[in-house]
Amino acid sequence: MKVLGIDIGGTGIKGAVVDTKRGVLKTDRVRLLTPEHPDPANVSSVLATIVRHFDWDGPVGCTFPGVTKDGAIHTAANLVPEWIGQDAAATFGRATGCPVTVLNDADAAGLAETAFGAAAARGGLVITVTLGTGIGTAVLHDGVLVPNTELGHLPLHGGDAEKYASELVRERENLDYPTWGGRVGEYLRLLEDLLWPDLFIIGGGISKRADRFFPYIECRTEMVAARLLNQAGIVGAALAAAQHHAKHKPKRSK
Ligand code: BGC
Fold first, then answer.
1. CATH value of 2-107+234-248 in 3.30.420.40, 2.170.190.11, 3.40.50.720, 3.40.190.10
2. Is the CB of 66 under 6 A from ligand 1?
3. Whole-structure pTM over 0.85, yes or no?
């Protein structure tokens, strides 16, 4: 089916129509800036603009950078606290006039990479780690997602791991690739000791420059760069909406 996938990030909000059977974009990708004050009203109006741009009235799948359960937001570490307790699916639904499914951004990336990308047809324990404004994680076992793992907030050196090894930290502290790659390695070893994964998928915008920092990451687990790059959130969001739709569609009476 066709679903409009939308990915809410710290700097940009991106959308495209996705063919959820093949995991490919059916339209160009549109990207608008994340509002300076990214509260529910401002983010909703960006979503409404994207929906109008595509003249869309079908299902929408949308990522959110925080803990998301049944469309409701429980944390928003890198947005604004006004989100907490909000029913994002209902708010976005009202703003766009479309049925909206909402899930964590890293979970969306993990779903997309497992269905169509770097871990397609791989079993075992696969952890997708997205390096961006924060660190997001998606844990899938034999293709089944354990949602909202939030392992970017594990303690490392006395603080949140994402405050030590995210892509934003690399930029802010002007770290060179050997230093930053070393920090990412420390973080991955922490995950390894806890969960013994079979594969790490490293995502986020920086994954397209994997050759620059992968050589400095030391860990024992096989590690690959995300294949869907900056489309993973959009594709995963659309996929989650398609799955939700299939599960909840009214049964035909005989
Ligand atoms: C949030 C996660 C999110 C990650 C990447 C973290 O700060 O808590 O929910 O997946 O950033 O955006």
1. 3.30.420.40
2. yes
3. yes
Residue nearest to atom 1 of ligand 1 (CA): 66
What is 64-84 written as a DSSP string?
Answer: ESS-EETTEE---TTS-GGGT
pLDDT per position as a tens digit, 147-189? 999 999 999 999 999 999 999 999 999 999 999 999 999 999 9
Q: Quick check: 139 and 110 in contact, CB under 8 A?
A: yes
Residue ID of nearest Cα to ligand 1 atom 5: 136
Distance 235 CA to ligand 1 centre (A): 18
Q: What is the pLDDT of residues 197-243, one digit of tens each?
A: 999 999 998 988 999 999 999 999 999 999 998 899 999 999 999 99
Superfamily of domain 121-227: ATPase, nucleotide binding domain (3.30.420.40)
Tokens of 109: 């990336």
